[in-house]
Amino acid sequence: MSNFGEYPPNMASQDALIIREQTGPQHAVVPYSGEELSRQQLGPANPYFDPSTRKRKNNVLTGTAEETFVSEHTFRYKHRAVERAGGPDREYQTGAEAKAEAKRIRDGREGKGNATIADGDGAYVGPWARYKRPEFEEGRARRGRGESGTVVSAPKVALERRKEVEALGEESTIFHGTAEFDYQGRSYMHVPLDLDIDLRKEPGSATNYIPKKLIHTWKGHFNDKAVTALRFFPGAGHLLLASGADSTVKIFDVYHQRELLRSYHGHGKAVSDICFNNSGNEFISSGYDRQIKLWDTETGVCKAKFTTGKTPHVIKFNPSYEHSHEFVAGMSDNKIVQWDTRTKEIVQEYDHHLAAINTITFVDEGRRFMTTADDKSLRVWDYSIPVPIKYHASEEQFALTRAAPHPSGKYVAYQSGNNEVQVFSAQDKFRRNSKKLFKGHNSAGSAIDLSVSPDGQFLASGDTAGFLCFWDWKTCKMYHKIQAAQNGSVSCVQWHPQETSRVVAAGQDGVIRYFD
Is 342 or 90 the better-scoring residue by pLDDT? Predict the structure, then answer.
């Protein structure tokens, strides 16, 4: 704004000069432009005022245009309105034409029915009355066609990508071993009896010790991508099942030649978790392609597929004999879904968590299970009852990312996000044991696996620095550290169920290491 007594450069007109000569410079009347009169003179400063926008700027031929956010719903609504009008090239309808078009659409709608009839022919449907099918088909065909009347197809790149995804989704298996059957016609499922150790004894009956050295390495099987899960064959442990970020599942021989036996292909993206059933003749795998698949361990045939449209993070078979055909899956939409492998249908849903599910641990011989999620809470459920019986959360609580049950069935160890391993009771009160706290490793920021020795004496855990850490369960004292990865974290750890001091570990470098 110009100072008082001075003329704005754009107002030096003849009238202003005459006024100045008559009144003198000390009593000059300053005329203002319309722009200055509309600008506020008093009051608080306008926080949205930009001096660069005082004068009108034309960034398009018809004036100014500003960027604005339009929701997907609003855009679709406007787009369909243009389509109903005949497209952008058609002239706008007159009032009579618009009324005729609206009447034609109303005439194609079914009747609202009789309010006195609740069900059957002529039942009341009210505002939910549908339109006739031919009109709907005609409108859909019209929207799917271009100006020339030809059907508009998807882009070539999208079609090629669709074919590629469909090809990845086809289940297949490859046998890599030297011989699929031995001289007696037995496959690799048979527990070997020509070893120095009895693999048929009860797991945990032998005393365990901490491993000291590396005895074998499986590498190059997952295309240098991360190993996401490791599982020993139930009971015997003569087979090792492993899943990778390259969307494959592989099974290895732990004894004899320690070779790769079979590969299972079928997931379109990285595999998130795997789990054997009680007998080991079947296993399930879940992937980031939102699919859960049931496989035959011996033949590699995919028996069934399960999906809810969400990503499964963790899957577990029920360990009880009565419900051994059922499994539960923790999903990315905060739900825990229970499936029956015989009917391939959902049996139950548990929906109380507020974030994605991290762990599922069965306790009390399969009658209950404990779950944790990214909402930093722990919940306990009775099996097949969708109401939690116990809830644990506190302000200082961190997310619990991995779990390992103690062989005694009394405790469950959880990997916490604050570089600690916490222990919760697996019995009636399900309280946290504040006296049992394992420290000395780094696990924050990654889902680091942990495992308890079969006799319950030691706890093993991975580390983000590539170490394998061992603690004494009673004293919580760290005994030993082993370098188990050259680069990246050790995210998978499993104790052998029968051997006294053998542990398998893997991580981000895609190499599986076997320690003794």
Answer: 342
Nearest-CA neighbor of 228 among 516, 418, 488, 441? 488
Q: How confident is the model at residue 174 (pLDDT cuts 50, 70, 90)?
A: very high
Contact 375, 353 (CB under 8 A): yes
**Backbone dihedral angles phi then psi of residue 270, each to the nearest 5 degrees:** -60, 145
* Residue carrying structure tokens 């942990």: 450
Residues 413-438: tens digit of each pLDDT: 999 988 999 999 998 888 999 889 99
Q: Span 242-270, mean pLDDT?
A: 92
Of the candidates 454, 463, 467, 457, the one whose C-alpha atom is nearest the C-alpha of residue 498 is 454
Q: Is 157 helix (H, G, I), strand (E, B) or coil?
A: helix
512 DSSP β-pair partners = 218, 506
Burial of 443 (0-12, 13-18, 19+ CB in 10 A): buried
List, as one string, the DSSP characters of 463-493: -TTSEEEEEETTT--EEEEEE--SSS-EEEE
Residues 6 or more apart in contact with residue 351 via CB below 8 angstroms: 334, 335, 336, 386
By the 8 A CB rule, do 98 and 81 touch? no
> What span, in angstroms and rounded, lies between the C-alpha atoms of 131 and 133?
6
The CATH number of the domain covering residues in 175-515:
2.130.10.10
Element (H, E) at 394: none
Residues 6+ apart with CB under 8 A from 515: 211, 212, 213, 214, 215, 468, 482, 484, 502, 503, 504, 505
Query: Domains of the chain: which residue ranges?
Result: 1-44, 175-515
Dihedral sign of CA atoms 57, 59, 65, 70 in order: negative
Closest by CA position to 378, among listed 308, 430, 336, 330: 430
- For 191, 198, 231, 275, the CA distances from 238, given in Å and listed in that order, are 7, 11, 11, 16
Residue 238 has which token pair? 């003569």
Confidence of residue 40 (pLDDT cuts 50, 70, 90): low
Backbone φ and ψ for 303, nearest 5 degrees, come out as -85, -30
Q: Which of 21-30, 168-177, 359-368 has the lowest mean pLDDT?
A: 21-30
- As given in the structure block, the two tokens for residue 502 are 């053998």
Radius of gyration in angstroms for the set of CA atoms belonging to the chain, rounded to a whole number: 35
Pairing of strands 388-392, 378-382: antiparallel
**Would you say how long the chain is, in residues?**
516
